[in-house]
Amino acid sequence: MELINQKSVQRTDNQLLALTHAAQLLTYITGFGGLLVPLMIWLTSKDNVAGMDEHGRSIVNFQLTLILIFVISFPALLLFGLGILGFIFVGVVGFILPIVNAIRAANGEAPSHFATIKFI
Predict the structure, then answer these.
(1) Is the pTM of this model over 0.70?
(2) Could you say which of 6, 16, 62, 96 has the lowest number of CB atoms within 10 Å?
């Protein structure tokens, strides 16, 4: 019996990368899908799609950063009234950056890491 070493060949799928970024907008519909859906897509296809690991890490880091800013904004709102700026930042940047990164992914470019803490 002969064993054949088959390397996994990664395919280029810019549409899936763009869809993964666009799935972050589910946060505005469901409240929690913006992290879960891209996380599931990333974990299931990071070995099969070229660039998915970089884009997936970027999405997870961005979503965790938004969650952290959102959580910190609550006490800041109650204590100083400045938390409203954090809520506005999360609302605006959390809507615009996934669209920008989806367009960048569709064009085969690397994702933007604007306002993102590197967790993973």
Answers:
(1) yes
(2) 6
